[in-house]
Amino acid sequence: MKYYLLGRSGLRVSEFALGAMSFGTEWGWGTEIDEARRMLDLYIDNGGNFVDTASIYTNGSSEKMLGELLGQKRRQIVLSTKYTFSTHPGDPNGGGNHRKSMVRSVETSLQRLKTDCIDLLYLHIWDGTTPVEEILRAMDDLVRAGKVLYMGMSDTPAWQISRMQAIAELRGWSALIALQIEYSLIERTTERELIPMANEMGLGVVAFAPLGNGLLSGKYSARRLPQ
User: Fold this and answer.
1) Residue-level pLDDT at 215
2) Annotated catalytic sites, by residue?
3) Strand partners, 206
């Protein structure tokens, strides 16, 4: 396993991250806990140290499973999660990018993951309404409080991320270090703006769906038409 510095930071992560979106079966599909344990142990035994989840994954079961399965191995893992999506139906402030949503989500994630801090917190998706200064200052407050160590972005326009990074550096707030994006041989639109922006602004690119949601795995083949 190779390891790389994540963005403009000293944090070392393995070249392959383990995505835990399917840990749990609350969405009608997914991975039972015994199989999740096998996958996690296999990943760690082969040198993996970068595990990714989100507050919304399998209605919170993904985080709960990781909290139970990691145990003493938690210290050697760079653990990332995300906030934005609402997990409180009927509450107009139950989701979004704003401070209330961020703090509430982090507190819940800490409990589920059975940890005292989140190594990397991503903004999961851009809501188009929250001022960037509010997001950045709330992120910085969480870092200063020791509840989060590093911050990242996911599914957000390149111009907004570059603007946020510039504001954070200008005001002395915690800088962003990671950008999570879909990237594969069949999804290359991020090469136009997001990846060049990440290189310029010091963000490490963390790609998801590298096999194009299975299309590049060799599992599927085109139906042969009769001659």
Assistant:
1) 86
2) 57
3) 180
